[in-house]
Amino acid sequence: MPAYSASKAALNAFTLCLREQLTNAGSSVKILEISPPPVQTELHDYMGPEKGRALGMPLDQFCDQAYEGLAKGEDQVIIGSAGPQEDFMDI
Predict the structure, then answer these.
(1) What's this model's pTM, rounded to 2 decimal places?
(2) With left for phi above 0 and alpha for psi between -120 and 50, is residue 73 left, alpha or beta?
(3) Cα separation of 43 and 51, whole Å?
(4) DSSP-assigned letters across all residues of 2-16
(5) Region 47-74: what's the mean pLDDT?
(6) DSSP secondary structure letters along 6-61
């Protein structure tokens, strides 16, 4: 999954830089980032419906956690991280 991981890291860096740039420019635009884990959707159906739909976090659980973070006013919501959030932020 090197390409997937690299693209996810690049998008995270872009989001952080954009948020900082807009803040420094005095913009009222708020940049939000949700970092999802694998989620049980049709995305993995190529593996077969039974196996593909079992991969990852249930969609309703993901949606509940994402909404909870957004409702708290967080601008970065990390769901189902591979490790502690502190480690994710240090990468």
Answers:
(1) 0.72
(2) left
(3) 12
(4) HHHHHHHHHHHHHHH
(5) 90
(6) HHHHHHHHHHHHHHHHHHHTT------EEE---BSSGGGGGG-HHHHHTSSB-HHH
CA distances from 7 to 12, 20, 34, 83 (A): 9, 20, 14, 19
Q: Is 87 helix (H, G, I), strand (E, B) or coil?
A: helix
Distance CA 31, CA 23 (A): 10
Position 55 scores a pLDDT of: 81
Query: Quick check: 35 and 11 in contact, CB under 8 A?
Result: no
Do 12 and 33 meet the contact criterion of CB atoms below 8 Å apart?
yes
Contact by Cβ (8 Å): 55, 80: no
